[in-house]
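A reminder from the course coordinator: this example appears on the midterm review sheet, so study it carefully.

Given structure:
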């Protein structure tokens, strides 16, 4: 169990282990809920890491599942304790989208993203994000907009530090051509893309207009991958109708293949930078 995982990944590891123990015991989620007189959805939420589980509940579940290995039991109970720790993003929960994407991002080893409309959040300048947020949330008071910007700027620290996030960002050509915030803001944003793309852990690719159709035309998508455990990899799909997390291994594997195909169809890193430089001199 890594000290840098953070509570979100620990909660997902714990949920996966508890699900495995339940299935080994040949019990359904409904049978477990009925045994403890819990809400019918509680076991599902525990196993999918939608809620934090108490150490007491973990002990009770393991007893029901007839798990007798003391060392294993103690490890899962400790995992439950650590998964309830406060994090830097706890204070931002009131403005975060459901599902705790920020927690997953904080724990991920690598991330592959597709963005068809705007520059990805991890690559945005403060002026660019302020223009976006102010337009999208025009009725919000200034202090709320400032907090959203603060959250996004803090998230960007994942691209630096001791164990930086490996990021492969594929963006549609529209993202670098759409004027956001005016000429000066957009010019600074494009210059920022060139600079941040110099980081060894960042790969930026543009999908040109003439590439035609591809499987990701429907909206933005992000694949989050975690060290030493492909079973916890997850795909995040964001849309106006709501967010969706795909966690089933066969489907995640399918998205990985599609991301590989997407990357091979997009401009490579060097050609992408040349295109951006051309937009700046045009």
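Designed residues:
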């Amino acid at each position: 169990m890594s000290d840098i995982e953070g509570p979100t990944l620990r909660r997902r590891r714990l949920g996966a282990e508890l699900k495995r123990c339940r299935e080994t015991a040949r019990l359904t989620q409904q049978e477990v809920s009925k045994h403890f007189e819990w809400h019918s959805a509680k076991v599902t939420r525990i196993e999918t890491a939608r809620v934090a589980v108490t150490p007491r509940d973990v002990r009770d579940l393991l007893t029901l599942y007839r798990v007798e290995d003391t060392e294993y039991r103690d490890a899962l109970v400790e995992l439950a304790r650590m998964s309830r720790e406060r994090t830097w993003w706890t204070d931002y929960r009131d403005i975060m989208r459901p599902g705790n994407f920020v927690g997953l991002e904080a724990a991920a080893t690598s991330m592959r993203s597709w963005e068809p409309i705007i520059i990805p959040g991890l690559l945005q300048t403060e002026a660019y994000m302020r223009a976006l947020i102010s337009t999208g949330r025009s009725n919000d008071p200034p202090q709320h907009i400032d907090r959203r910007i603060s959250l996004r700027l803090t998230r960007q620290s994942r691209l630096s530090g001791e164990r930086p996030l490996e990021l492969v960002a594929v963006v549609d050509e529209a993202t670098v051509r759409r004027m956001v915030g005016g000429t000066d803001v957009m010019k600074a944003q494009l210059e920022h893309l060139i600079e941040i793309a110099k980081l060894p852990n960042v790969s930026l690719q543009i999908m040109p207009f003439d590439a035609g159709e591809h499987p990701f035309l429907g909206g933005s998508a992000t694949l989050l991958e975690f060290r030493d455990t492909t079973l916890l990899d997850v795909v995040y799909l964001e849309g106006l109708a709501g967010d969706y997390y795909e966690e089933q291994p066969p489907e995640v594997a399918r998205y990985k293949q599609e991301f590989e195909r997407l990357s091979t169809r997009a401009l490579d890193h060097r050609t992408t930078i040349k295109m951006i430089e051309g937009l700046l001199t045009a």
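The longest strand covers residues 166-172. The mean pLDDT is 91.
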